[in-house]
Specification:
about 700 residues; Beta-galactosidase, Chain A, domain 5; TIM Barrel; EC 3.2.1.22; Alpha-galactosidase; Alpha-glycosidase_related
Length: about 700
């Protein structure tokens, strides 16, 4: 397009940006983000900015910048803040050059006081990936107070509505949708992980988008530590979203010769409503993020809710035999197998089999698991330590702490500092040893508390870097494990859904969505999760009734049908299930396996209703198979939808159900299916799975 204008173009969208000079001030700005334009038309949007009223109190152009800084004539939300020697805080960047490669462009900017800033842009499928690199080429240290991955301007709309998820432990990824308020709307985590309270993404529309229609812009951050995302709506109507790692408070030193690189901020435009946006994110995750995206996730059994801390060889082998009879393919031993771990007050950090519970180590147990035809998995919590442990007594300096300050425990544990090379080396040693010694196929990697007293005594003035280096250290350990043990699969867990994002998904195969296994609560959690992340990575269990957390009683079929919407697992106490329940479970697991490729790898459609509240349904389409999971939690609701209209089918094709009845795709999408589950007559908690096969394939 020219030496100062460029376009990042996907199959359906375009992102046009470039360098704009205003006197001595040079800025990298966004001119366009929306539907794909003809190649010849891309240049037509360059510099085409409506005239806006300026004043001595407001600069209307800073909202369009890809990296608005703190300095000069800017009063909006900064993506980059720096403090130079002598207390200078005004950043003044000038464009130097554009460095192009086959896959990305870097716009190089420099500040006379020594900073070299690279603004990077790359197209990956339908996603525009952006990140920033900052190098200190000057003679003095610089301190960065904010370094976001980039800011995105949302095109002018008649109105602005945001969609996101928020919640708490056991209430993760609850969908929130409301008008974007004038001012600054910030979603953040100060916990050291992605957190249960929010997830690092936001969708913006004009207030008129639906599930299948309308323009939607998404900004997401691929990072698993603390983060901040701010949507800024100006009183005069402009909107921009900036996102990056870290939270307000910590600042990061950049010594001469050092470089700091941010994680990626991801932008995606869709004109097909929230559903199309979600499906584009799922495709991105499968093709460009997940390490093993097209494997079929095995049906697993996890022993936690059956045994809690009462773990021993005999009991685990008994559960393994029962699980194998149901058709389970992966058996995972949860907490309580190691050290002196008989409750949550001791033993965390001492990663060897408890000699009283497993006198022969874990070999007999996992040999039996494999003899039963299942793979072997183990729960670990590598980032934590109990003060009552051999590890802590030997290495009290390894935990996050400030000299002379308390070391507050949560869940009776402290956080190990993965920014330290010795901690990472220790973790790789015993984790790799467990895989080798016991032929493990699977780790459930847990992380059960937020950071407190987040100091790094040995790092001195550089201690705040632990907010970055801990997460990068976790990434490095996982990457090393996968390199050494290619068949190893990892599930990310953080007290449930506290660490779910595109950063951790690059290194893990599944995520534990919530510790809340209540089927009705899980419907809302799974619905919010689905806005960005694919079903294949969503671990979902069937547990006991009454549920151990909520005490709610839900029929077994309903519990299964909710868990079948992702990677199916079982976590109940099988010793207490009746013969009829075990037989029903066996049949439902077999039914799931028959359609597993469609659920895990198909295109997902959220069809109707409010999950867990009204009659609702979710659909998956993969090759010739269509799967619909339908739910109705309350029989007393006399106004549910009674007929489900399917989506994403070939209108000319004919589809056949299990009873041999045939309908055209257009009929199924326009007229729909009448579901017994959605009838106003019947009991609470009705559910069903409908399977259709496209004929002629």
């Amino acid at each position: 397009m020219g030496d100062r204008a460029w376009a990042a173009v996907t199959k359906t969208s375009a992102f046009v940006f470039g360098v704009e000079a205003a006197g001595e001030d040079t800025r990298v700005v966004q001119w366009y983000w929306g539907p794909r334009l003809p190649e010849a038309a891309l240049a037509e949007v360059v510099g085409q900015v409506p005239r806006r009223t300026g004043s001595g109190f407001h600069d209307p152009r800073d909202v369009d910048e890809l990296l608005p800084v703190e300095g000069g004539r800017r009063w909006g939300v900064p993506s980059l803040q720096a403090a130079y020697a002598g207390g200078v805080r005004s950043v003044e960047l000038s464009f130097v050059e554009a460095v192009l490669s086959d896959t990305e462009i870097e716009l190089v900017l420099r500040d006379p006081l020594g900073l070299r800033v690279g603004v990077h842009v790359k197209v990956v499928s339908e996603v525009v990936e952006r990140w920033v690199s900052v190098a200190n080429e000057g003679p003095h240290a610089v301190r960065l107070g904010r370094l976001d991955s980039g800011s995105w301007a949302i095109p002018e709309q008649a109105g602005y509505r945001y969609t996101g998820v928020a919640g708490a432990w056991a209430q993760e990824t609850q969908l929130h949708r409301a008008e974007l308020a004038v001012g600054e709307t910030t979603f953040t985590s100060r916990t050291g992980t992605t957190s249960h309270r929010a997830n690092p993404w936001i969708m913006i529309d004009a207030g008129d988008a639906t599930e299948e229609r309308g323009e939607v812009w998404t900004v997401a951050l691929a990072w698993s530590g603390s983060w901040r995302l701010t949507a800024q709506r100006r009183p005069e109507g402009d909107v921009a979203v900036t996102a990056g790692f870290g939270h307000d408070g910590p600042s990061w030193p950049l010594d001469p010769g050092e470089t700091l690189v941010t994680p990626s901020a991801l932008g995606l435009y869709s004109d097909g409503g929230f559903g199309a946006a979600s499906r584009a994110w799922h495709d991105y995750a499968r093709h460009h993020v997940l390490p093993t995206p097209f494997e079929e996730r095995p049906v697993l059994y996890n022993s936690w809710e059956a045994t809690w801390f009462d773990v021993n060889e005999e009991g685990q082998i008994d559960l393994a035999r029962r699980a194998a009879e149901l058709g389970v393919e992966l058996f995972v031993v949860d907490d309580g197998w190691f050290g002196s771990r008989t409750d949550d007050r001791r033993g965390l950090g001492d990663w060897w089999p408890n000699p009283d519970r497993f006198p022969q180590g874990l070999s007999k147990l996992f040999d039996t698991v494999r003899e039963l035809g299942m793979r072997a998995g183990l729960w670990v919590e590598p980032e934590m330590v109990n003060p009552d442990s051999d590890l802590y007594r030997e290495h009290p300096d390894w935990v996050l702490h400030y000299p002379g300050r308390r070391r507050d425990t949560l869940r009776n544990q402290l956080v190990l500092n993965y920014g330290r090379a010795d901690v990472r080396e220790w973790a790789i040693g015993w984790l790799s040893g467990l895989v080798s010694d016991y032929g493990l196929d699977y780790f459930k990697w847990d992380m059960n508390r937020s950071f407190t007293q987040a100091g790094w005594a040995e790092a001195g003035e550089r201690a705040d870097l632990l907010w970055i280096e801990h997460t990068r250290g976790v990434y490095a350990v996982m990457d090393t494990l996968r390199e050494r043990h290619p068949r190893l699969r990892i599930e990310s867990c953080s007290g449930g859904g506290g660490r779910i994002d595109f950063g951790i998904l690059r290194r893990t195969d599944e995520v534990w969505t919530s510790d809340n296994t209540d089927a009705r609560d899980r419907q809302a959690i799974q619905d919010g999760y689905s806005y960005l992340y694919p079903a294949s990575a969503m671990s979902a269990w069937v547990t006991d009734s009454p549920n151990p957390h909520t005490r709610r009683e839900v029929p077994l079929a309903y519990r299964f049908h909710v868990a079948m919407a992702g990677a199916l697992g079982v976590g109940g106490d099988l010793t207490r299930w009746s013969p009829a329940e075990l037989e029903q479970a066996r049949e439902l697991i077999a039914a799931y396996k028959a359609v597993r490729p469609a659920i895990q790898h198909g295109r997902q459609h959220r069809l109707a209703g409010t999950p867990g509240v009204t009659a609702s349904a979710v659909q998956y389409v993969h090759e010739d198979t269509v799967v619909v999971l339908a739910y109705n939690p309350f029989a007393l609701s006399k106004h549910p939808p009674r007929r489900v209209r399917l989506a994403g089918l070939d209108p000319e094709a004919v589809y056949e159900d299990a009873a041999g009845e045939r309908r055209h795709g257009q009929t199924l999408m326009s007229h729909g299916l009448a579901l017994p589950t959605w009838s106003t007559e019947g009991s609470d908690y009705r559910s069903e799975m409908v399977v259709l096969r496209r004929l002629g394939i």
